[in-house]
Amino acid sequence: MYKSYSMELAGRTLTVDVKRVAAQANGAALMHYGDTVVLSTATASEKPREGIDFFPLSVEYEEKLYSVGKIPGGFNKREGKASENAILTSRVIDRPMRPLFPKDYRNDVTLNNLVLSVDPDCSPELTAMLGSAIATAISDIPFDGPCATTQVGLVNKEFVFNPNAEQKLTSDLQLTVASTSEKVIMIEAGANEVPEDKMIEAIFAAHAVNQQVIKFINEIVAECGKEKHSYESCAIPEELFLAMKEIVTPEEMEEAVFTDVKQVREENIRNIRDKFEASFAEKEEWLPLIGEALYQYQKKTVRKMILKDHKRPDGRKMDQIRPLAAEIDLIPRVHGSGMFTRGQTQICTITTLAPLSDAQRIDGLDEAEKTKRYMHHYNFPSYSVGETKPSRGPGRREIGHGALAERALIPVLPSEEEFPYAIRTVSETFESNGSTSQASICASTLSLMAAGVPIKKPVAGISTGLVTGDTDEDYIVLTDIQGLEDFFGDMDFKVAGTHDGITAIQMDIKIHGLTRPIIEEAIRRTKEARTYILNEVMIPVIAKPREEVGKYAPKIVQIQVDPMKISEIIGQKGKTINKIIEETGVKIDITDDGRVSICGIESEGIDRAKEIIKAIVTDIETGQILTGKVVRIMQFGAFVELAPNKDGLVHISKLSKERVNKVEDVVNIGDVVTVKVIEVDKMGRINLSMKDIEE
Fold it and tell me: S1 motif domain spans which residues (predicted)?
């Protein structure tokens, strides 16, 4: 017999069915939020996976198009690989959940979320986040939860919790906050330049809502929760640590990691590992543990240096940014390029402009197909960290970093009416040692401005880190963390924005949450850092967007026509529009509201296409002066095509002020001539004159 539990959450009913389906999973919750239904399950392997030094957690978010009454497109009528939205949702579920599992747990765990039904006003992503937390909390899998997640919007300067579809359209904030019963454990945000104080207020408003949900989850766990199973600990034996310290003292380890050159540090660590492997050659049971033990030894050394000695591995002050550099136009022939360097992190972003018809079409869990006019893609090749492995396309990390940069820049992009282009930026990681995603935001801003995209304001991003001690008050926040501080620290708090406010946040942590003072200090530090980056590094290179797009970029002209005239522009079976394209070499896009975009490289072709379209949609009237092409010659005159399917006759007597014996003496087929309309008769026939045009 299954049990059902309900609570009111942001004005809608959240219902959880336990033991109704998926009984063989370690934990399962059938989630209902409005008419949105998600099955969330948590399963774990019986034994740890051998030969690994990490917790093998896998999070899946499965979008099924039947949930919105759709059949997948294409030849293969079933869902394929995970969409970008599914990958990003999986990452948002993973980030707050992962720190709550035991650090020495090596059993495979899969959190699966199957979207069965979608109510546009009740987010399936949020429902899956809550479902994963509930399924794991009631399971027998070791888990120091529960945690809860709330989404926050900002509509008319008021906070809206778990906003519906209509509210999302007008919201200035898309914030997701996960919490435990005590602290904030995950933050993800996109915002229209929301001030820092307002963002902090929103985060803790969401934290308060999360406490209501956690209370609800605890009630379910009290009635339905299974006893947590015991597991084989993979913790490193203390005697191994003691033996390692006899071979390499803490002082020697500190000297090995205390350098600002990543390659030197890695070489030092390789030498230390060789020492350990040689010393423990006869201790076969220790050899497989050396990698993890060395990692822990480094971690303890770095954390002690930072927290107790107030020393960073590269010698910087706690709030000091690494050396910065910026440049533009380093890649010829592309539409725009910019490179941003911070220490050993270097990103080059290339901007490409195209007609709006090149926008990305997305077939997702929405009532209608969506398009993305701005696309940001991020690449992280192995050479950027001095490694070698084949490229297999973007992984979840690359997709996540690209989406973060995209979210940070969308608020400053011009509207389609202001700039009728599809825009793609690609960030290529040339070198990596900490926070490449934020460097890609800086490089993309430079590239967009160099390409002539009229962004409203420049955007910069920076990341802060954290090392904590034994109490909530014992901590140090680090500005601009490098890779080592990210690996061995407790937090990666990325914030992007303009001078006036935040446009994106992504927070990852490895501990059980952050207190308000830590979050406030991290946001303050990122504000100071990005202000410095903008003023001292980026704006001196390019202060504002270029007035025009580059010579290799397509030029786009828009005209507005009567929607009733669209069919005349297109013509029967597309003959008219295809003829214009063939003649002028342009690309033409027409929207249902009559907005016509003409795209081409050469201005002559654009102007000619514009002229033809205007002629098509404009009624020919006496007295007009028009340009057209001679398409037919008779003994009595020449026929001039003013627009597709609109020809006028220039009688031989109207060709010139001089006497004309033969039409071909004045014009030939293909000539482009300027004419004046002298009559449109009752039959719609158009009579033209070349000699009556005023000089």
Answer: 623-691
Q: How distant, in Å, are the alpha carbons of 367, 393, 430 from that of 390?
A: 39, 9, 16
Give the span between the Cα atoms of 478 and 76, in whole angstroms.
50
Over residues 44-50, the mean pLDDT reads 93
Domains of the chain: 3-149+195-224 (3.30.230.70), 238-307 (1.10.10), 324-468+516-538 (3.30.230.70), 554-618 (3.30.1370.10), 620-695 (2.40.50.140)
Going from the C-alpha of 26 to that of each of 130, 368, 425, the distances in angstroms are 17, 37, 43
Q: Which amino acid is at 584?
A: T
Rounded Cα gap, residues 134 and 22, in angstroms: 14
Strand partners, 161: 152
3-state secondary structure of 463: strand
In sign, the C-alpha dihedral spanning 660, 664, 670, 671 is negative
| Residue 277 CB coordination number (10 Å) | 14
CB-based contacts of 560, cutoff 8 Å, min separation 6: 594, 595, 596
C-alpha dihedral over 274, 276, 280, 286, to 10 degrees? Answer: -110
Compute the distance between CA of residue 601 and CA of residue 6 in angstroms, rounded to an integer. Answer: 60
Residues that constitute the known binding site for Mg(2+): 486, 492
What mean pLDDT comes out for the span 253-263?
86
Structure tokens at 292: 């993890």
> How do residues 405-423 score in pLDDT, each as one tens digit?
999 999 999 998 899 999 9
Average pLDDT over residues 485-494: 93
Q: Is the preceding omega at residue 146 within 30 degrees of 0, hence cis?
A: yes
CA atoms within 13 A on the CB side of 257: 27
Amino acid identity, position 451: A
N residues, the chain = 695
Q: Is 418 exposed, middle or buried (0-12, 13-18, 19+ CB in 10 A)?
A: exposed
Give the mean model confidence (pLDDT) for residues 196-220: 97
Q: Rounded CA gap, 136 and 109, in Å?
A: 10
| Structure-derived torsion over alpha carbons of residues 499, 193, 374, 120, reported in degrees to the nearest 10 | 170
Token reading at 343: 């220490």
d(CA 614, CA 612): 5
Q: 572 by DSSP, 3-state: which?
A: helix
Return the beta strands (E) in 460-511 as ranges: 460-468, 475-479, 491-497, 502-509
Tokens coding 312: 């960073």
Please report which helix (H) or strand (E) contains residue 32, including its range: strand 27-33
End-to-end CA distance of the chain: 94
